[in-house]
Amino acid sequence: MTLNSATPDFIDSLRAGLSDAAFREAEPRYFEEPRGRWRGQGVVVAPDTVEGVAHVVRACAAADVPVLPYGGGTGLVGGQITPDGPVPVILSLERMRTVRGLWPEENVMVVEAGAILQDIHDVAQAADRLFPLSIAAKGSARLGGLLGTNAGGVNVLRYGNARDLCLGLEAVLPDGRIWHGLKRLRKDNTGYDLRNLLVGSEGTLGVITAAALKLYPRPHGEGTALMVVEGPRAALDLLALARDHLGEGVSAFEIMHRQGLEFLAETLPDIRQPFDVIPEWFVLIDVGLARGLDPATALETLFADAFEAGLVSDGMIAQSEAQRHAFWEVREQIPEANRRIGSISSHDISLPMSVIPEFIARGVGVIAGIGAFRINCFGHLGDGNLHYNVFPMPGCAGADHVAARDAIKRAVHDLVHEMGGSVSAEHGIGRLKVEDLERYGDPVKLAAMRAIKAALDPKGIMNPGAVLRGP
Ligand SMILES: Cc1cc2nc3c(=O)[nH]c(=O)nc-3n(C[C@H](O)[C@H](O)[C@H](O)COP(=O)(O)OP(=O)(O)OC[C@H]3O[C@@H](n4cnc5c(N)ncnc54)[C@H](O)[C@@H]3O)c2cc1C
Predict the structure, then answer these.
(1) DSSP-derived pairing of the beta strands 221-229 and 281-289
(2) Most exposed: 143, 144, 251, 445, by fewest CB within 10 Å?
(3) Tens of pLDDT along 196-218?
(4) What is the position in ligand 1's atom list of the atom closest to the CA of 202?
């Protein structure tokens, strides 16, 4: 199917069903993405009701114009960017931010898809509840994008990813019909699960306009520690010990490497370095405990047992909220430090947890076989999810190694695949990993995905070129 560009006449034809406020200035932010790999194109339309979204999608379907669902623009795989082809309508949800309802007794909240994650946190907190999905881009990422990419983040270990936190959806399907699926049910076995199909579909199967979200009681006491470990194997043993001590109270378990702290020191010197001497490997452990349990005491007991078992050699336990924040800032600013250094190739991968130490050891050899590079490997160890990023040596720029990029990516992904892992743990496929999906994806699954796409979006107007190769 050949698609058509959104011409000025076509955009004018949309005015019948939308207010003037829906037609947005073409600000540069809509055409940029965090890593600067692509520049996008499109005409931005931002309805403020689900009927407005349906009106736009119906018109696009009738005129064969591509639709690009758009949230906060923080996606890391280019799903929110159309660099070439027919000019799409960038369908921004930014004006749909209403909290439609909050039921503290059910631990449920219904929110429109344009809500920013930080605002959702604040509304939940005001009701003495927790919405646990948390990523460093929480001040910009919007609910539709978080669900569209099935975002993960730092609390997956305890609460699951975006998919696990979603009970129901309202969405506009590619023909413009509205699906009213905002159920607040924990159990609903009524046939195929359209909600789970749309979550993680990266705007290729429809536009999410609102969601029913799971909330949780707020932990009574929270604590954070940094602990120095000998290496990834000791970190995994420490995680097992922490869960033995604290059960589901462990809400985050992040591993970091010396390279991350060195990048922070170089690019963001105002961030307080936690250690006098930078260790090779260390972990951040975050706990949230029920009434009657003191997090600092629990972390001290854990540290003492881990020290005795030879798993940790040094550590610090946050003594205040400010110190907790400072520990977390180290973790959350590492992606920004990486961005400032400029990677040659970045990989968001997951592996069966027990093979991670072997993967990290083999990875060093694989990268050294290609050339002299620096590796910053860090991430959500508790979920088996590593961010494995490869950088030039000091004094060189990422751009100096464009020729090596494909070889590095291929070598890392081949190793991940061989060891039973995934080449996209939490960022999605977008445009960046279409070929990887074709190379490493199960062919039967791919055929089923293409059949689903053809059934729901026969004209291929929804985010063409993302996830699956375009028409
Ligand atoms: C500093 C930083 C840290 C990050 N950390 C993490 C992390 O820890 N874990 C993680 O998983 N991700 C992380 N990300 C990636 C990114 O923030 C997530 O992918 C986020 O979910 C994208 O949300 P967004 O609103 O910005 O979506 P966008 O970037 O606007 O869109 C992303 C994708 O979702 C689709 N989409 C957007 N809105 C809708 C909708 N309403 N309906 C259907 N599809 C839609 C788009 O078409 C696109 O394919 C990080 C990004 C940055 C910049």
Answers:
(1) antiparallel
(2) 445
(3) 999 999 999 999 999 999 999 99
(4) 49
CB distance 382 to 252 below 8 Å = yes
Dist. CA 340 → ligand 1 center (Å): 20
pLDDT in tens, 34-92: 988 899 999 999 999 999 999 999 999 999 999 999 999 999 999 999 999 999 999 99
Domains of the chain: 99-217 (3.30.465.10), 221-418 (3.30.70.2190)
CA 428 / ligand 1 centre spacing (Å) = 9
**What's the Cα-to-Cα distance from 13 to each of 46, 58, 93, rounded to whole Å?**
15, 12, 20
d(CA 203, CA 147): 10
Closest-CA residue, ligand 1 atom 34, reads 145
- Pocket (CB within 6 angstroms of ligand 1): 34, 68-76, 79-80, 93, 113, 135-137, 141-142, 144-146, 148-149, 151-153, 202-203, 207-208, 335, 426-427, 430, 463, 466
CA distances (Å), origin 151, targets 27, 46, 95, 172? 25, 23, 21, 20
Alpha-carbon Rg for the chain in angstroms? 23
Ligand 1 atom, smallest distance to 134 CA: 8
Q: Is the pTM of this model over 0.90?
A: yes
What Cα–Cα distance (Å) separates residue 101 from each residue in 106, 121, 165, 198, 265?
Answer: 11, 14, 16, 22, 44
| Cα 328 to Cα 5: distance, rounded to the nearest angstrom | 45
